[in-house]
Design goal:
The complex is a heterodimer of chains A (371) and B (302). Chain A is built from twelve helices and 19 strands. With 371 residues, chain A is of the alpha+beta class. In chain A, α1 runs antiparallel to α2, α4 packs across α5 and α10 runs parallel beside α11. Chain A is elongated. At the A-B interface, α8 and α12 of A face α4 and α5 of B.
Chain lengths: 371, 302
């Protein structure tokens, strides 16, 4: 049960009853158990008596949790999950993910559950079991038996594990997951095999066939600039630097960040406007870039292959007119109809810095801040 | 000779009646490509007209191949139907299937990859700009252009280019054109985590091609394809290679535009890739502006 207030948490805990319940912070990051809240409260996961659930939830909700995976900024906890506390006999790790190297799903399992699996893989690689599944054959019964035996399940728990794994594999495929991770998977003292926590990653490319999964999207958990960018079909990722960039093509956008760094600057973002960007998209991109107070200069890098550079130039000029240009703007245009594009930029009364090539553009952008 | 395609390759376009496919079919016809057929289910019997060109449209790839002798297909169909379109081309006996479509679900590509194993078809892409073997005319006209690359930036010549990124391919092409070296064939292998042709596959093809004298390999963060290609090249490649890897400054765990461009669990970093390239004797350009000069360094050309 998920609760957004301490009162809801208390009610949920009372309903569950029993001797103890578990209260878990709900954020898009792992390592919660060992995390620390910025208010000093230790641990994003607590086992408490039902009567104490509301009190513990009050320490979590509205507070920022810092874990190994959140970075220093931490994540604001808006909700907690209240669950039944079970008596655990043993904790396991179980995950299914897409393995790029083999182009197959791989099931990863370990007897060392409840811990950081990357540390387990590092320290005791022999304790990690891997089973690659043929995409056209699907999960075979013998593969289930192999994993079950490898984890040491016997009797009734082995049957339960088999059923859980088969269902999990079906879910992985049917929901187009790129990863499902159950950590911990537990065997209880009364012989049940249960998933106590789960993390799902979904393939963005497949969301078109899963409106029910899109419903789960919680934009509160995302960077507001990235949410705004996604509304305009822009690919934006915020970074910590002060030179913003606007580029066509993902590879060139990454390479533009790299070259800014190479010349001693720090990129403020990744931004790919795509191959067919419109004037409106360019304007939206400028607004998002300028909404970041850390940004001190902008570098526009366009290799217009098929795209007309003059169209881009008009887009940049219109965007600057619309949103204003309080900081230096360096523009590098290359490709189709580049002469007309450069003429359009030169004819505008905007304070643009024209660059001859990408290296020149990056140097000028870095210099514009130093000056 | 060039690799995979030349000016005589007969090409069909799946999705030729769509806006995206149609626009690029026209640009390929203008470039001089032998674009002999289009395929759109339900529109068989129509023609796709552009200037003096009247390209017949068929309902199925099988019909199009039988009637026109096309051996290569370009796929411009939307993501939901793209895996089916790829398999249709493979079934129809195409030698080369180039999937331009961006956004195909990984599960679909996983099945396609397993489904085409053992067939004679070579898949390039998906999520790629396609390939170009430049022609010998003005602005490289008369060549074979499959996909969405700008034809005019090319020049027929001696450098083979393979890349995961479209616009970075164009940077490499443009720089080698300006330096006067030109290209034998440029192959965009695409930015998805599962693709048909790898860097290694392309290096092997270029290594065996008489016209290719040097190779430019452009990679990015995510996966280990560049490392595998480097390991092979260090042992077997007879030709000098210059490379660039994008994404040194990308934060871990984030997808940088391309579905496959992600550093996960500390794997697939630009640094690790650069180190394996350098260890294999490949000249690595520090910035995309230096791809051409890295090639000059690797080859000693001037």
């Amino acid at each position: 049960m998920v609760a957004a207030t301490p009162e809801e948490a208390g009610t949920a805990a009372k309903e569950l009853g029993g001797e103890r319940v578990v209260v878990k912070s709900q954020v898009h990051a792992g390592g919660r158990g060992k995390g620390t809240f910025k208010n000093g409260f230790q641990g994003g996961v607590h086992l408490v008596a039902p009567a104490e659930a509301a009190e513990v939830a009050a320490q979590m909700i509205g507070q920022t949790l810092v874990t190994k995976q959140t970075g220093e900024a931490g994540k604001l906890v808006r909700k907690v999950m209240i669950g039944e506390a079970v008596e655990i006999n043993h904790e396991y790790y179980l995950a299914i993910l897409m393995d790029r190297a083999t182009c197959r799903p791989v099931i990863v399992a370990s007897t060392e559950g409840g811990m950081d699996i990357e540390e387990v893989a590092e320290a005791t690689p022999e304790k990690i079991l891997r089973e690659h599944i043929h995409p056209l054959m699907g999960l075979q019964p013998f593969e289930v038996r192999k994993l079950s035996a490898g984890l040491g399940f016997k009797g009734e728990p082995a049957k339960q594990f088999g059923k859980l794994l088969s269902n999990l594999y079906r879910l992985f495929l049917e929901c187009d997951c790129s990863m499902v991770e159950i950590n911990p998977l537990v065997e209880t003292t009364d012989g049940r095999v249960l998933a106590l926590d789960a993390k799902f990653n979904f393939d963005d490319n497949a969301l078109f066939r899963h409106p029910e999964i899109v419903e789960f999207r919680d934009t509160d958990e995302e960077d507001p600039r990235e949410v705004e960018a996604s509304k305009h079909s822009l690919n934006y990722i915020g970074l910590d630097g002060n030179i913003a960039c606007l580029v066509n093509g993902a590879g060139l956008a990454m390479a533009t960040m790299d070259i800014i760094k190479h010349y001693g600057g720090e990129p403020a973002n990744f931004l790919d406007v795509g191959g067919g960007a419109t004037q409106e998209q360019v304007a939206a991109a400028f607004k998002i870039i300028l909404s970041d107070d850390a940004v001190k200069a902008i570098l526009v890098n366009i290799f217009g292959g098929i795209m007309d550079c003059d169209v881009i130039a008009h887009g940049v000029v219109a965007a600057c007119r619309e949103v204003g240009l309080p900081i230096p703007l360096v523009v590098r245009l290359e490709g189709n109809n580049v002469a007309a594009g450069k003429a359009t930029l030169a004819a505008s009364d905007l304070n643009l810095i024209a660059a001859d090539d990408l290296a020149d553009a990056a140097e000028k952008a870095v210099a514009s801040i130093a000056a | 000779m060039a690799i995979l395609v030349d000016e005589n390759t007969k090409v069909l376009v799946q999705g030729i009646t769509g806006g995206f496919g149609g626009r690029h079919a026209k640009l390929s016809l203008d470039y001089g490509t032998q674009l002999v057929a289009g395929v759109t289910p339900g529109k068989g019997g129509q023609t796709f007209d552009h200037g003096d060109h009247k390209v017949p449209v068929f309902d199925t790839v099988e019909q199009a191949a039988r009637e026109t002798g096309a051996t290569a297909s370009a796929i411009f169909v939307p993501p939901a139907f793209a895996a089916d379109a790829i398999m249709e081309s493979v079934d129809a006996g195409m030698d080369l299937v180039v999937a331009i479509t961006e956004g195909i679900p990984v599960r679909d590509m996983m099945k396609v990859k397993a489904g085409i194993a053992g067939s004679n078809a070579r898949l390039v892409g998906p999520n790629c700009p396609g390939l170009v073997t430049p022609g010998r005319g003005e602005h490289s006209q008369g060549g074979c252009r499959i996909g969405i690359s700008p034809g005019y930036i090319h020049k027929r010549g001696r450098v083979g280019i393979v890349s995961r990124s479209g616009t970075l391919t164009y940077e490499g092409v443009w720089q080698t054109t300006q330096l006067g070296f030109g290209q034998s064939t440029c192959v965009g292998i695409g930015g998805d985590p599962i693709n048909g042709t790898s860097h290694l596959d392309a290096l092997q093809l270029f290594n065996d091609d008489d016209e290719t004298e040097a190779i430019i390999m452009i990679g990015e963060i995510g996966g280990t394809a560049e490392e595998e290609a480097a390991a092979w090249a260090g042992e077997h490649c007879k030709k000098p290679i210059a490379a660039f890897i994008a994404g040194s400054t990308a934060p871990p765990g984030r997808r940088m535009g391309h579905a496959g461009a992600i550093v996960s669990g500390g794997k697939g970093t630009a640094q690790a890739k650069k180190e394996s390239l350098i260890a294999a004797g490949i000249t690595v350009a520090e910035t995309p502006a230096e791809i051409g000069s890295a090639l000059v360094e690797a080859t000693g050309w001037r």
